[in-house]
């Protein structure tokens, strides 16, 4: 599954850059082409981000990458309980 996500990630980012360039370089009078290219670029960017975040989550879960820094928020619950008791 990670290999499939990696391939999809590359294809999605390629679509983002290709259609993004087409949207930017399109003739301003041709709004249809510009709109379709912008929608396809946004779709490619969104799919690329989704795949990237899934790959990061997978690499953290398997131990390939160290887990990100997370704040310890347990003290907030204790403080909240002390204030409301």
In brief:
The chain is mainly α and 85 residues long. It is 79% helix and 0% strand.
Task: Describe this entry's structure for a reader.
It contains three helices and no strands. It has 85 residues and is mainly α. The mean pLDDT is 90.
List the helices and strands and how they pair.
Blueprint: H1 2-25, H2 31-62, H3 74-84
Helix pairs in contact: 1-2
Can you summarize the main beta sheet?
Answer: none
| Secondary structure category | mainly alpha
As a percent range, the share of helical residues equals: over 70%
Give the assembly state of these chains.
single chain
Strand content: under 5%
* Strand and helix order: HHH
């Amino acid at each position: 599954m990670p290999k499939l996500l990696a391939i999809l990630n590359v294809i999605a980012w390629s679509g983002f850059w290709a259609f993004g360039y087409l949207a930017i370089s399109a003739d301003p009078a041709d709004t249809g082409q510009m709109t379709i290219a912008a929608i396809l670029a946004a779709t490619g960017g969104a799919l690329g981000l989704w795949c990237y975040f899934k790959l990061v989550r997978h690499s953290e879960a398997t131990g390939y990458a160290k887990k990100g820094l997370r704040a310890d928020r347990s003290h907030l619950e204790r403080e909240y309980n002390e204030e409301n008791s």
